[in-house]
Task: structure prediction
Amino acid sequence: MANTVQYGMVIDTTRCMGCQTCVVSCKVSNHTPEGLYWGRVRSLDGEVVYQPTGTFPEVKLAFRAELCNHCATPLCFANCPTGAIAKREEDGAVVVDDEVCIGCGTCVKACPYEIPQIDEAAKKASKCDLCYRKVAVGGTPWCVESCPGEARIFGDLNDPGSDVAKYIVDRKAAQLHEDFGTGPSVYYVV
Result:
């Protein structure tokens, strides 16, 4: 059954300056343990951050912030042997139930975007939850709220009148690895 609301976002890489504020605000706000990050920033070619692209004199820095894609058909959910990963009907967020997770790492191996991680201290899977508790009371995810370049546009992808849906159309935003067949809810403007 399709969600009536599917929250997602566009990350406009032309506005991202690679500052990592999204990564830090997510880490601090979600109290993830040392060494565990729910988001990351890469250069557009997938290499180390701050790697210039282009050829002199046309050299530039271009970044891609990455997080859980909260897919329409999440492979982490499909492959979890305990049912610890769920796709929330009310907002489309893909979340981990710590009470059910056994820390087997199947979700880590199944995700083609390499997003879930094992929290070694808790022995549980850990990943971005789209700040669903904050969103449920009218807020936006911490990464969106904190971005100084306003590179993230958040909202209901299923509402054609939403800012995020309009941005996708107007800026021709695309999903990362659409060919994986997972239906990501994160889009990119390049």
